[in-house]
Amino acid sequence: MTTRDINEIIDKIENTYPEGSEVAMTLAEKLRQEGIEKGIEKGIEKGREEGETKALIKTAIKLLTRKFGILPEELKMKISKLDTTTLEVIIEGILDYKSLEDVKKYIQ
């Protein structure tokens, strides 16, 4: 249920029941609260995902720097734009890479 759906239901309830009606107030409040809670949950989940991605970016750059020395800024920028799955693949393969060219295969 979207925020728009909830607002439409609230409007219908408020138009159906007299102003100040307990039923209208209770239903409207409940629907608003559910909408707020869903919005908060989505925000928390998005924040977790972004945090996980940032941690993987930091880990990948740190491990690659430790293995190969200073990384080119262009490579760091490309790594910082990768998705979580690709970052995990790069991190898992770090012990097997012989050069940065091996890493670049996943970035192109």
State the helical fraction.
over 70%
Q: What is the N-to-C succession of helices and strands?
A: HHHHH
Q: Unreliable segments (pLDDT under 50, ≥5 consecutive)?
A: none
Instruction: Give the overall pLDDT as a whole number.
Output: 85
Structure, explained:
- The structure is a single chain.
- With 108 residues, the protein is mainly alpha-helical.
- The protein has one domain (3-107).
- It has five helices and no strands.
- The protein has helices at 3-16, 22-68, 73-79, 84-92, 100-107.
- Helix 1 packs antiparallel against helix 2 (22-68) and helix 2 (22-68) runs parallel beside helix 4 (84-92).
- The longest helix has 47 residues, at 22-68.
- The radius of gyration is 24 Å and the shape is rod-shaped.
- The model has no long low-confidence stretch (mean pLDDT 85).
Summarize the structure.
The protein has five helices and no strands. It is mainly alpha-helical and 108 residues long. It has one domain (3-107).
Features:
single chain, about 110 residues, 5 helices
What are the SSEs and their pairings?
Layout (H helix, E strand, L loop, with lengths): L2 H14 L5 H47 L4 H7 L4 H9 L7 H8 L1
